[in-house]
Write the C-alpha cells for this entry.
Amino acid sequence: MPFRSFPKVDAVETVDRAAEEAIRTTGIEARLILCTLRHFSRDQSLETARLLERFSGSRVVALDLAADEAGHPIDAHVPAFRWALERGYARTAHAGEATRERLRTRLTGPPRR
Ligand SMILES: [Zn+2]
C-alpha cells in the first residue's frame, strides 16, 4: 500500500483522543508536545505551532523541535517558536546532540522549568 499522508489536524486529534482515553483508564496524567522537524519549511513549522491554538483546552501543551540538526539549522523555525513564545506556550528543542548550536536565546527564550 503506498504511503499516504493525512492532515496534521487528524493526527493530533487521534493522539489527543487516545491520550484522553489512557488518562481515564489509568489515572496517569499526560500532556502532548507537538514536534516540528528540522527539515520542515518555515511555513510547515508555523503550521505545527498554530495547532497549539487550535487544540487549546486539549492535552496539547507545547512545541518541540527535533530531527537532523546537523543538516538543518534553526533559522526556518525561529518564527514558529516566537509565535509560541508570544502566546505563552511551553517550548522545548533538541539541541547539542549533533552540533554545538546554541538555541536558548533564539528559540526558547529564557529557561522555564
Ligand atoms: Zn522531542
Remarks:
- The pocket of zinc ion is lined by residues 35, 64, 66, 94 (CB under 6 Å).
- The first helix runs from residue 8 to 26.
- The mean pLDDT is 88.
- The radius of gyration is 15 Å.
